[in-house]
């Protein structure tokens, strides 16, 4: 039996993949196997993966609604768009929750070029990360070696510039006005999708940290999000796409944020139905089981 993946390619149907996807959201081994068997009974040659996704999500939701909500994580991250700014704010929110001071859209000097626009910087104790986000709104996309090469080349130039040297303590920032801080400066490339094998191999060799779907192995973005319950607001089914800009501007980025704000005031100020907002909040309570 073969299926058609999101890239339009044929691949064998895998019971194990279905089981793993159900297990990821908290389903027991017994339930995961039952779901996989049920899906196997319903599929046909050439079935697109999005139909399998819908079936698995429906079965998980029937078993326990919170499983169905969590299963939508990958699609929820793709819905942070339409451009990459929403994803950048989401990554910043994740890093802040684990103690980093994050600044978005920074301009940093290099050695060869006087200025680079950086998606974010993240600072903590003796660590300073220079980050690049690669966001994809379409399923099946991957960050390839060309992106990894370009990212590392830029980082290497920045590493030799006055700004980075001042952070490491090797040189002052501006003609002796500021002293070095003795931090470890590193590069971080983040994506809401996968990295290609060659992108991983090159980045591991060049020392650039990668963070994406299922990478690092057993500690990818999806694992970190589930472990810390830092789901994007877009994971909630009643969230409306047309709210994206409003929510981004108000820094309502995480699903848990909706439980911390005055929904009546938000409704009045933005002209959003309070009934719908209440529904989103109810879904958030299911997600966090409160």
Notes on the structure:
- The chain contains 13 helices and 10 strands.
- The protein is α/β, with parallel strands linked by helices.
- It has a 5-stranded mixed sheet, sandwiched between helices. A 3-stranded mixed sheet has the order 2-1-3. A two-stranded parallel sheet has the order 7-9.
- Helix 1 packs across helix 2 (about 30-40), helix 2 (about 30-40) packs across helix 3 and helix 7 runs parallel beside helix 9 (about 195-205).
- The radius of gyration is 21 Å and the shape is globular.
- The two termini are about 40 Å apart.
- Mean pLDDT is about 90; it is low at about 175-180.
Gap between N and C termini, in Å? 41 Å
Quote the beta fraction: 15-25%
Oligomer: single chain
CATH architecture classification name of the largest domain? 3-Layer(aba) Sandwich
Sheet with the most strands, sense and barrel status = 5 strands, mixed
In N-to-C order, the SSE pattern is EEHHEHHHHEEEEHHEEHEHHHH
Largest sheet, order of strands side by side? 4-5-6-8-10
Q: Which parts are unreliable, with pLDDT below 50 for 5 consecutive residues or more?
A: 175-179
- Computed over alpha carbons, the radius of gyration is 21 Å
The coarse overall form would be globular
CATH class of the largest domain: Alpha Beta
Instruction: Estimate the mean pLDDT confidence.
Output: 92
Number of helices: 13
Number of DSSP-assigned strands: 10
Can you tell me the number of structural domains?
3
> How much helix is in the residues?
40-55%
């Amino acid at each position: 039996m073969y299926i058609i993946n999101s890239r339009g390619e044929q691949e064998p149907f895998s019971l194990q993949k279905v089981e793993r996807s159900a297990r990821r959201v908290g389903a027991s081994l017994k339930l995961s196997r039952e779901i996989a068997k049920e899906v196997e009974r319903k599929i046909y040659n050439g079935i697109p993966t999005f139909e399998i996704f819908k079936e698995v999500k429906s079965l998980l939701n029937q078993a326990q609604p919170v499983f169905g909500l969590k299963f939508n994580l990958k699609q929820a991250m793709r819905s942070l768009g339409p451009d990459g700014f929403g994803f950048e704010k989401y990554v910043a929110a994740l890093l802040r929750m684990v103690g980093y001071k994050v600044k978005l859209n920074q301009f940093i000097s290099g050695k060869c070029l006087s200025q680079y626009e950086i998606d974010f910087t993240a600072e903590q104790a003796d660590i300073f990360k220079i980050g690049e986000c690669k966001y994809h709104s379409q399923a099946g996309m991957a960050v390839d070696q060309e992106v990894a090469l370009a990212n590392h080349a830029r980082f290497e130039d920045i590493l030799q510039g006055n700004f980075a040297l001042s952070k490491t303590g090797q040189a002052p920032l501006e003609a002796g006005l500021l002293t070095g801080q003795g931090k470890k400066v590193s590069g971080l490339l983040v994506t809401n999708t996968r990295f290609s094998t060659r992108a991983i191999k090159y980045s591991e060799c060049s020392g650039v940290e990668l963070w994406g779907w299922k990478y690092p192995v057993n500690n990818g973005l999806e694992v970190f999000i589930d472990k810390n319950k830092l789901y994007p607001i877009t994971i909630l089914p009643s969230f409306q796409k047309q709210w994206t800009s409003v929510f981004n501007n108000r820094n309502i980025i995480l699903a848990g944020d909706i439980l911390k704000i005055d929904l009546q005031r938000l409704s009045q100020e933005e002209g959003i139905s309070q009934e719908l907002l209440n529904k989103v909040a109810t879904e958030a309570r299911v997600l966090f089981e409160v």
